[in-house]
Design goal:
By secondary structure, this protein is mostly beta strands. It has one helix and ten strands; from the N terminus they run H-E-E-E-E-E-E-E-E-E-E. The protein has a single domain, classed as Beta Barrel (Porin), CATH 2.40.160.20. Helices cover 10% and strands 59% of the residues. The longest helix is centred in the N-terminal third of the chain and has 21 residues. The N terminus is likely disordered.
Length: 206
């Protein structure tokens, strides 16, 4: 059975988001609400486990592309990479790349007189793939050094606008579920924390 690398999944997600963004620009005033495309670049720490215990942190980074389409509803594509050379003092390293895509809802509070910054609070549920490599994955077919797994990512965050086109992602928290073989449950529940910068591209409404 052929496994898709996360990069292919991300390319599909970006293509879909570009299509959604184009359609948003073509909408008329009959579909009101704040609409924009955001590109966020963040530093991301992931709290994970090999089996159940012990746990460890994986530093890394994320790129996230999102589009608000109608009344706060939209889509997001998240691409994250994390790595550690010695996971939980086991002598085994782990590198992980995830590519997830799915719906997002954003509550947007614009800048008004007397208020310096806009505020965006979002929640999302994404699915996709996780690719683990440079590690040790024991399975029924033998030990593998890389493996593709289903990935589920659920969470949200807060963006504070600095201007019409720039914002700071002050906080993002996500739960990540993966299914890498580990000679036990073959399930990992990880926690992600991220912060960074956001490029905003407002969409014109006619």
């Amino acid at each position: 059975m052929m496994h898709l690398r996360p990069g292919y999944f991300l390319l599909l997600a970006v293509s879909l988001l570009a299509t959604v963004s184009l359609r948003a620009q073509q909408q008329t005033a009959s579909t009101p609400g704040h609409q924009e495309v955001d590109l966020a670049v963040t530093y991301t720490e992931q709290y994970s486990n090999l089996v159940a215990t012990p746990t460890f942190w994986l530093p890394g980074g994320s790129v996230e592309l999102s589009a608000q389409v109608y009344h706060g509803l939209g889509f997001a594509a998240n691409f994250t990479g994390n790595t550690v050379s010695n996971a939980a003092n086991s002598g085994v390293g782990l590198s992980m790349v995830t590519a997830n895509f799915g719906p997002r809802y954003t509550f947007y509070r614009p800048t008004v007189a007397g208020r310096k910054h806009s505020l965006a609070i979002f929640g999302q549920g994404l699915i996709g793939q996780a690719w683990g490599f440079n590690s040790y994955f024991p399975s029924t077919s033998g030990v593998q050094t890389d493996y593709n797994s289903f990935a589920l990512q659920v969470g949200g965050g807060v963006d504070v606008g600095l201007s019409r086109h720039f914002a700071v992602r002050v906080f993002q928290a996500d739960w990540l579920r993966t299914e890498f073989p580990n000679a036990s449950t073959n399930v990992q529940n990880s926690f992600r924390l991220a912060a960074g910068i956001v490029l905003r591209i407002p969409q014109q409404q006619r």
